[in-house]
Amino acid sequence: MENFKIDVDADGIALVTFDVPGRSMNTLTSSVMDELPELVERIKTDDAIKGAVITSGKASGFCAGADLGDMAGGSLTGGGDLQTAFDAGWKLNGALRALETCGKPVAAAINGLALGGGLELTLACHYRVVGDDSKTQLGLPEIKVGLFPGGGGTQRLPRMIGVQAAMTAMSAGSSWRPNDARGAGVVHEVVAKGSEVEAAKAWIKGGGKAVQPWDDTSFKQPGGGPYHPAGIQNFLVGNAMIRKQSYGNYPAVINLMKAVYEGIQVPMDAALRIETRYFIKTLMTPQAQGMIRSLFLSKQELDKGAVRPAGIPASDAKKVTVIGAGMMGAGIAYVQALAGIQTILIDRTQEDADKGKAHVEELLKKRLSRGQLTQDKYDALLGSVIATTDYEQIKGSDLVIEAVFENREIKADVTKRAEAQLEAGAVFGSNTSTLPITGLAEASVRPEDFIGIHFFSPVDKMMLVEIILGEKTGQAAIARTLDYVMKIKKTPIIVNDGRGFYTSRCFGTYVAEGLAMLEEGYAPALIDNIGRMTGMPRGPLEMHDDVALDLSMKVSKQTALDLGDKYVPLAGAEIIRTMVEDLGRYGRKNGKGFYDYDVKPKKLWSGLAELAPVRINDSTPELVEDQKQRLLYRQAVEVARCWEEGVIDDPREADVGAILAWGFAPWTGGPITYIDQIGLKAFVAQADDYAARYGDRFKVPQLLRDMAAKDETFYGRFTGARAAA
Amino acid sequence: MTEAYIYDAVRTPRGKGKKDGSLHEITGLSLATQVLEALRDRNGLDTSKVDDVILGCVTPVGELGADIARTAVLSAGWAQSVAGVQVNRFCASGLEAVNMAAAKVKSGEADFAVGGGVEAMSRVPMGSDGGAWPVDPSSAFPTYFVPQGVSADMIASKYGFSRDDVDAYSVESHKRAAAAWADGRFSKSVVPVRNQLGLVQLDRDETIRPNTDMQSLGGLNPSFAMMGEMAFDAVISQRYPEVERVNHVHTPGNSSGIVDGSAGVLIGTLEAGKAMGLKPRARIVGAASIGSEPSIMLTGPEFVTKKLLGKLGMTVADIDVWELNEAFAAVVLRYMQALDIPHDKMNVNGGGISMGHPLGATGAMITGIALDELERSDKSTALITLCIGGGMGTATVIERV
């Protein structure tokens, strides 16, 4: 065995050290899966072994779970043959079941994080000891990539801690710290870090039982099963909660519930077979395939600099200036301070600059109160942010990011004043969400070092940074900017210049399409509910309120001016004009928009029907599905146009960027995956249908027709495009 | 085909379905037994001529489990040759039992059959029989399951009935029920329930509050708001996204009461009745059941009524007396709105809101109530219907002979 080392001590206790060669972290690779049965057989049949302790040989933790790369590669889908897929999926469950029924006590000495299949391996042990370390996480996060625990977790966890607690943890993908895990009943013992093995051995020597609770004849399901008077609520309410949260878009969470419901009513062997069946079924869904690829594999690649220009030495931003200390600027200051970057936070008055720093302080305090920062560290980080009005302080900055008003003159002035302080090689970044970078760069004396760095609000929560290239932006500036984004642990995507770049432009179509529906006479409640049901975080009308109606009107006016004859007015523009200019309804910011915000929860404005008479106030599932797709198609068509225009050119960036920036329905795996999975032919046909019904904005670019004709997909045709270029 | 005639219909009064209800100390079996005894004794029935006893029961577990119909037949001392079967079509079980009895008679399978029902809600709690629909995710998810009260609140929200509307309906129900009792309109069919000593335990419906008014009802808290806000509003909103928010208007005051009770309807062929010296009171003209959208669940009566009237070549105008179980006020309000039925023809003697809804028995009870009303008012045709869990609807048209 290459992954497990066995040392039997004088007491006959086998110490099994789990250590996957050539990896910094243990995962359940195909090789591990292959060796597990052998390991179990050895423990079971070697008479010299009285019991076993499993621990990790890695400093990085116990085990991070399944190898999603292997899984995405089809290791468990049997090439579509269901029995082959089941057999492959059963390998892990079969081995773990053999482990817990091997007749000898087995304890897990958990020395560091144990997630997913890693935790499930320990759940199949008779005893779990975890080292006390606030960094250690124990959890089953599979749901976040469109899967659920498939190594017995759906059966063992509910039998240990009850259905409600188990479902809550598995459906959210949350994790426990060691002491919380003991409190929840997930582990038996928390011991000083480094003494896990010793404690695990002590349990065996103390007569630890080699029988799992559920294999004991007196076992009773904690909290009751589905038809127990108390247990029934977990399912009755649990089913509703899952629909409430998932809108039925995520088969994983539904299949998870099915596995728990059906599995808990039968003995463990049958229960595990049920779990494997649902797991395989889930893994084969387009949602799981798309989510694993975009939310795990592609995101991880982008996080590691997959799109960084090659051949340019790595840089390390040590000092970065942020100009403009509003919410956005202060948010940027916070995330970079957290990454250990010395931060100069500049605004026009000391008072404004201080206000920005106060926001940083507030965010840092939150971490302090949650125990995520020590007092010393807190003091140091807060001290690393200097609030000032003095541009001289910029000196020595590796990067300057301006986050001032979206006004060309102000930005030009800031650019000039900042550049005067910058040394050669330092980068100037503009955090604009709409103004073309090439135009802004005209104010720069060093346009090759001028770049767009588009953060999203709130910066501390939004994981994406959209990097925008001006015409003259140089490779070195791109590389340095990417290095900075990686340092602050955000996910970078690189896009080319254009109106609204990639994310603002495509997001805008969602909001605009909602307005078009309003003009067509759809009841406002129908529009926003359908929007939410697509998997977008909010409905288009409430989103519009959040963006602010007056701002949206201003952008439209500016666009009309810029485009002249080419400008196509948005459907519903007159409704917005009336609301803003005649009625003073600006959106959430003044408490009056499509909704009234003076009541809680917010309520649709009753006057809206006068501006947009309701003609469609009844729904059928078919109508809802058609309009859901309409909202998603509209965005996807815009993404395809961005592609054709060269704004984006990497499917990973397009997908990850869409999900992280504007919350494009994560279950799809992103707009490009959405198009690919529908199939280019079918997508084009459906988009043509929408175009006929709703207008040219649904017209797909020629690229899509060409791809449809050749039966191509984006991922098939363009993967590695940038690397190859 | 042979015609099916109603010869008699009896019911127990309805006792409050709680521990302090008058019938709580009477077993469910005893309620069903007393109904069968009454049918026999009032009609001088030779029970050996009855082929089958069909009893609706929605929670057929515990003392009502294991085919309560056959148990009641034996307990009532009916001929051992009489078969018994318990059926469950949720709230329409009692009407379904009547329809099945009629179908057996019409098909020639039975000369006489009893259709009835029993529910002892104070003793066998509603829902204690389990059931996959809301619990198994394989059925709960695709059907947007919500508890009935949330469905009823959605009906009110979608079709525009306010809290005042539903409360006003309830006030009227109590007023009508009280007036009906005062007028002796139920005396023909209500059989007092006797206790272990044979003394009268209850001889009137127990939950009528003649003084119910808007003010007293207005103070009651919505029953399904908490449940709805927890998760179920979000579920039904995904099925009816045109509704911005579920308005929780139903309270214990405008929903049907939880009660204990039993009822039975004696049905037979003309020839069998003649041989027994019985006079037919009404003919079962036709019956139907349907399924409709299960999440809103309780709008089925509209669709089953349309189906049945269509089958019979009748229109709404042909019906003199309407009985729709008052499961929730909005159910009746929506039904009247959809079919354009005047309130003065609907549930004229009150209903489930004022007198309670002993789930499995109600359908048979309101069949008898409709028949009594036809005779009292000298009208000809009645339609009896109930909304049903799972989105079903069952309806029956009867006609005096």
Task: Give the SSE layout.
The complex is a heterodimer of chains A (725) and B (401).
Chain A (H helix, E strand, L loop, with lengths): L3 E5 L4 E6 L11 H16 L5 E6 L11 H5 L9 H19 L5 E5 L3 E2 L1 H7 L3 E6 L5 E2 L13 H9 L1 H10 L2 E2 L1 H7 L4 E4 L3 H10 L26 H15 L4 H13 L4 H16 L2 H18 L15 E5 L3 H12 L3 E5 L3 H20 L5 H9 L1 E4 L10 E4 L5 H12 L7 E4 L6 H4 L9 E5 L9 E6 L5 H13 L3 E6 L6 H18 L3 H10 L6 H8 L1 H15 L9 H10 L12 E2 L6 E2 L3 H4 L9 H24 L6 H12 L8 H8 L1 H15 L7 H8 L4 H5 L2 H4 L1
Parallel strand pairs in A: 2-3, 3-4, 4-6, 5-7, 6-9, 10-11, 10-13, 11-12, 13-14, 14-15, 16-17
Antiparallel strand pairs in A: 1-2, 7-8, 15-16, 18-19
Helix pairs in contact in A: 1-3, 3-11, 5-6, 6-9, 6-10, 9-10, 10-11, 12-26, 13-14, 14-15, 19-21, 19-25, 19-26, 25-27, 27-28, 28-29
Chain B lengths: L4 E7 L3 E2 L11 H16 L6 E7 L11 H8 L7 E5 L5 H15 L4 E9 L11 H4 L1 H4 L7 H12 L3 H20 L10 E2 L5 E3 L11 H5 L6 H15 L19 E10 L1 H7 L5 E10 L8 H13 L8 E4 L4 H11 L12 H4 L6 H16 L3 E8 L3 E9 L1
Parallel strand pairs in B: 3-4, 3-5, 10-11
Antiparallel strand pairs in B: 1-8, 1-9, 2-8, 5-8, 6-7, 9-12, 11-12
Helix pairs in contact in B: 1-2, 3-14, 6-12
Q: Care to describe what's here?
A:
The complex is a heterodimer of chains A (725) and B (401). Chain A is of the alpha/beta class and 725 residues long. Chain A has an eight-stranded mixed sheet with strand order 12-11-10-13-14-15-16-17, sandwiched between helices. Chain A has a six-stranded mixed sheet with strand order 1-2-3-4-6-9, with helices on both faces. In chain A, helix 6 runs parallel beside helix 9 (232-246). Chain A is globular and about 85 Å long. The two termini of chain A are 42 Å apart. The model of chain A is unreliable at 721-725 (pLDDT under 50). By secondary structure, chain B is α+β, with helices and mostly antiparallel strands. Chain B is built from 14 helices and twelve strands. Chain B has helices at residues 28-43, 68-75, 93-107, 132-135, 137-140, 148-159, 163-182, 214-218, 225-239, 270-276, 300-312, 329-339, 352-355, 362-377; strands spanning 5-11, 15-16, 50-56, 83-87, 112-120, 193-194, 200-202, 259-268, 282-291, 321-324, 381-388, 392-400. In chain B, the strands form two sheets. In chain B, strands 1, 2, 3, 4, 5, 8, 9, 10, 11 and 12 form a ten-stranded mixed sheet that branches. In chain B, strand 6 and strand 7 form a beta hairpin. The model of chain B has no long low-confidence stretch (mean pLDDT 98). The A-B interface holds A 226-227, 229, 232, 235-237, 239-244, 247-248, 254, 257-258, 261-262, 523-526, 529-530, 533, 601, 603-604, 616-619, 621, 624 and B 128, 130, 134-138, 140-141, 144-146, 230-232, 234-235, 237-245. Chain B: InterPro entries: Thiolase (IPR002155), Thiolase-like (IPR016039), Thiolase_acyl_enz_int_AS (IPR020615), Thiolase_AS (IPR020610), Thiolase_C (IPR020617), Thiolase_CS (IPR020613), Thiolase_N (IPR020616). Chain B: The active site is at residues 91, 357, 387.
